[in-house]
Amino acid sequence: MKAIYKHLDLGLLIARIGIGAGFIYYHGWDKLVGGPERWEGLGGAMARFGIEFWPTFWGFMAAFTESIGALLILFGILFMPMSLLLAFTMLVAWIGHVVSGNGNPGHSFKNMMVLLAFVFTGPGKYSVDAWLAAKKAQASGE
Question: What is d(CA 74, CA 67) in angstroms, rounded to the nearest whole number?
């Protein structure tokens, strides 16, 4: 098992790059640059949860999380909170696919599960978060 754990940080780096770049390219960037009209349509999904106010805000948050949040995940910056926000976005998408019957809910479900795993694993040592933590520990003499 030591041989497997020896490459854990490399595996986390590869997963972060894949998830981050995939979200930016396939999901987030088009939504983010789509502007308020697109955000309002996205945010309308929150009505399934009884949240019918501020649809433009909720849509912007989804677009922001799927693009800028994914970029932060890719580099390992604010990794755990961004992973949690993106997992929540995937929860909304998954429920939307299940309830509406449109699209494949499996894709958003799998993304949600990977992102939840990220919340508990952390970004690994090849990340900005790890670099900042090392700098902080070095400055405090630990």
Answer: 10
